[in-house]
Amino acid sequence: MTRGFSPLASPWPSRTAASALVALFMIAALVVSACASSSANNGKSGTKTLTALGFVGGSYTQDMSPFSPNVNVGVDGLVYENLEFVNGVTGKETPVLATGHQFSSDNKTLTFNIRQNVKWSDGQAFSANDVVFTFNMIKQYPGADGSGLWQHLASVASNDPNTVVMTFKDVDPPLLPFIEQTYIVPQHLWSSVGDPTKFTNTSPVGTGPMKLKSFTAQQITYVKNPTFWQADQVKVDQINYPAVNSNDTALLQLSSHQADWAGIFNSALNAQFVQKDPAHNHIYMVPVVPVQIVPNLKNPLLAQLPVRQAISAALDRQQMSASGEAGLEQAASPTGLMPGQEAYLDPKFSGKLPDFGAADANKAASILQGAGFKKGSDGIFADAQGHKLSFKATVPGDFNDYVQDLQIAQQNLKAAGIDLQLNKVSDDGWRSDRSGHNFDLIMTGGFFGPTPYYYLEPLLNSTHISGANATNWAGWNDKATDKLLAQYAGSSDPNVQKQAIQGVTAIMADQLPVIPVLDAIQFFEYTTTNWTGWPTPDNPYAIGSAYPLAAGDNEQVILHLTPAS
Amino acid sequence: MRRLIRRLGLYLLAVWAAITVNFFLPRLAPGDPVAALQQRLQQRGSFNPASLDALRAEFGLNTNDPLWLQYLKYLNNLIHGNLGVSITRFPASVGDVIGQDIKWTLVLLSVSVLLSFSLGTLVGIFMAWNRGTAFDTALSSLMMFFYSILYPWLAIVAVYFLGFNLGWFPFAFGYDTSLTPGWSAEFIASAAYHAILPALTLIVSTIAGWMLTMRNSMVTTLSEDYVLLARAKGLSSRRVMFAYAARNAILPSVTGFAIALGTVVGGQLLVEIVFSYPGIGFDLFQAIQGQDYALADGILLLVIVATVFMNLIVDLLYTILDPRVREGRSVSA
After folding, report:
1. Of A70, B4, B300, B311, which is the most exposed, with the fewest CB atoms less than 10 Å away?
2. ipTM of predicted complex
3. Between chains, do A1 and B48 touch, taking CB under 8 Å as contact?
4. Closest C-alpha to A377, from A365, A386, A366
5. Domain spans of chain A, in order of start
6. Region label for A382, one of left (φ > 0), alpha (ψ between -120 and 50) or beta (otherwise)
7. CB contact under 8 A, B172 and A145
8. Which CATH superfamily is domain A288-521 in?
């Protein structure tokens, strides 16, 4: 099983011809009118309402079970809370419904201390029994167990109202964040609802900062929950989530300050949002996981380190960032770590995230010459047996940004004496080629979680090379890597885990099992016109994006917001 | 009468054929609803094959039935009025999703089509009557201009200038979403205000078609002998224009109008995207993206039935408008 919050696909929206056309025209219209003065109504409302564009995708159908595959925005995090919040940027834990947890010395028992004096929004008291009930409900209905918790859990029980004790079938501390982030529902209302994935839950009762005020197909409205255990910290009286059909509408809503908060991609974000009102309009694109070019290590040429090094050295990551990704994604580090994860760096990097440097075709060529490759008459390097460095890069044809990045790579590699052809395939074809190792090079995102382990483990552990859901796409089979990953997985001691990751990131940088290109991001836009206290790169207390993927993060954002004076 | 029964039979056959194509085509296309679902689930957390299998079972995707048996079951469900469960909106049923969004589509589009058709046809009549005059030439050229404007461009310009920049009209949503939908005056006024811009762009972009069709068709009938006869009899201009020329010239427009009304239930994806307007077109778009067969089939079924029904109405109208049809003679005679 593979874990991680995974934008396996391009994090950029894939578009059909129709919506691409619309976008194109929208941008044209924006450019044409760039000089026309904008008289957007910066209406400040008297009530302390936050308008969030958390869902771009048409009208709502009511679906307020946290265990439904199509759960409405705001249900997770705002209405229902989890045991502990794990910050996806820093990995830091914040207690929520649990006040803490302890692993037993053999790591086979996990005890949560449950918070006292918490009430459900219907006035009933919350207790450890609700936690026990929720976990056992997930066991009974596997469709609700999206994280596969019960493949590792043996039992969840409570001896007193303050503690919940979980026992494991096997030692698996990396499961912890998924346990912590399970949303807890009230036993007194849910014990009779049956399958929680089918339960529409039209009047949700939770412990969180907000409760449902009204639901219509066009807007979900939440208001402050007066019984919330930190109610004095909540300054937001009401949150509106209008249903928006397109990122272009969302951009206009943000730009005219009709919306305060969003998580959208739009290539005109800088020109049409930030620059319209730089004092108030901000974007903070949170880097979460590298986008990489994965080599198929079964290919005898790509199995040679100098070939991978030469490819990596030739890539112009800055140009890919600027023209392929509208400047929103930055060049990746060879370690695969994100800014903010410096603690996981091998000591040899002395605390500074190393970069790949500028594209250098000469360096690439000299690496290849040093490894015995010779340039043929066509300008392409070949080994002594005449095998040319000619590769196909597989990419989903509708991931426009990936395609553009690879077209840049094609030119970069040509200058270095390596031939690259693009192999555009369907999304499904790309996915099956990737897990079936049916490619030379393939461009893809990765899994992510609260620590780099959740990116590195699926990508590099040799147990994930084969099978229908293979995630070690490169086919990296290295005993040292496996041992380090096992060290992390076998311990609940953060220092032991940290050392293990440091070892793996050194392998990443030195041996290039995959070639990181750019840092994939979570989109996050906000204005400080009505609300302040948003996460910033200096204070990344949560992933700020206003969408359900960052549900626990959304609760933290709500707790930090204060009305602008 | 016999003719009508024969037509009815033909229409039923057309509906069945369309339903069949509707069922098989998406299922023969590459792609797998489970893969699309997996993609969505992965965006919410880790992915657990066991949970995926359980959801497949709930969606009814775990079936080992051969396609023909699935088809028979689908027909059986249809006969019983059961359109199935939507995957992209699970656990909502297809009926619920369609019921929720179609009212927006029906009101906006039928009003726009009706206005565009009546205005366009009326002006077309006057253009043909005054053919060759400056009025006709100028309007014809202007209409050709409108006719060739790409709808998305027009809509985006309207959104950006009239909505966003000038703030005369709201540029998104079907109504002020802070209101509670209902029969209150405030809500209806808000919904009407929000509908102006989308309706206006729809009318501007389609009116030229009706005008030119009517004009060209009527120019032909104006040279017919019976029009000359009517004039010779000394009938009033208005009577010649409407009762003789226009009545005979309007047949192709009526067919076009019926088809336009029939496709109204399919929604207008571009309108819904550009104006973030609620409606059925975006549901269909999402259903296709998410390989949500049940929802896509449900919406397409609606389009088929509506189109066929409107054609039936046209057939009935023809018998009223055209005596030759009533008497069973060929229209082209």
Report:
1. B4
2. 0.85
3. yes
4. A386
5. 288-521
6. beta
7. no
8. Dipeptide-binding Protein; Domain 3 (3.10.105.10)
